[in-house]
Amino acid sequence: MRTQILGSGFVTGQNLVTNDQIARMMDTSDAWIRERSGVETRYYVEQGTTTSDLGAGAARKAIEDAGIAKEEIDYIVFATMTPDHYFPGCGGILQDKLGLPHVPALDIRQQCTGFIYGLQISDALLKTEQARTVLLVGAEVHTGFMPWTQWDYLLGRGGEPPTPEEKAVYTSFRDRIVLFGDAGGAVVLRQGEGDKGLLGFQVHSDGANFKDLYVPGAGFARRPYVNEADVREWRHVPEMNGRAVFKLAVGRMPEVVRELCKKQGVPVAEIDLLIAHQANLRINEMVQRALGLSNDRVYNNIQRYGNTTAATIPIALDECRKSGRIQPGNLVCFVGLGSGFHWGAALMRA
Ligand code: UT7
Question: In terms of CATH, what superfamily is 197-349?
């Protein structure tokens, strides 16, 4: 018996936002963003749409795709770094929004590796018969991190442009802000007979350099955990040492894929499709080269959605399943690295 994907689905924020629109808020350009990250567009939610809303939208699609009744779900695993509230997590809120029975709902926070950790946990729950049908969700609303207030102007709905002083402040966050989008992805998982399904996992964590990508404020390391000084000094916006994260990603991702393939006894060259976390197209191109995989063996969609953290892998997976990029018998490898730092890979026989 192996854990198999019964269904998948995703939703995005309501508003498609181009690089040119972002360039209205800060000193950046479509050319820079495309060249350095590959991102062309991303989606932003309307204010009031939350991570659990996107998770619920994705989950409904995944449940429909699986062809099961929602009541068959007996465990929820929800991965996000942008929960609706500091507590409780989104899992329970999702359970209520979907109108599910009182099933267990587990929140995990492994950021960009959340979906891979979630697959591993779901597989363990299913194999040990703690659950029969798991709903695994990865969803994010990153727009809460955006430093600006002129949303109407950004979205072309009138309003006032930022002042030159405000623009200068927003520009100080441009390396991070241009990368992210809002979306949710979900899969329904169940054990099934045959060769098809999840084969194995390799995950790691190293907290030593967590400050290379973290939110310095809005946490219980300080009293009160949200305070005026933190907001005034922008400590509620993530800090990132982009070059350090880039270097880590291009080293750790191929390394963990090789480690997993060795453990599973399959040559890297047998991977039919690599679905990597979508943080930067340049990172993924370097990972592809390091693994010696041809273009037809990798899938990227960061161009359209930007980095949606826990949602990137389920979105790419859903697109590949539905477009025929994944064929029966294919060996599919998922890989990601994110804040923590956490990184990992999973192998699946389609
Ligand atoms: O999901 C995991 C989370 N994050 C990541 O994986 C991110 C990993 N890192 C990256 O993707 C890249 O480091 C970035 C895309 C964030 C930045 O690209 P880079 O090629 O490493 O640029 P850089 O930070 O070295 O900056 C180069 C220049 C700087 O200007 P000067 O000092 O050379 O004059 C930056 O100020 O580019 C400037 N810059 C920008 N210019 C226009 C940085 N961001 C922007 C921007 N628009 N958005």
Answer: Thiolase/Chalcone synthase (3.40.47.10)
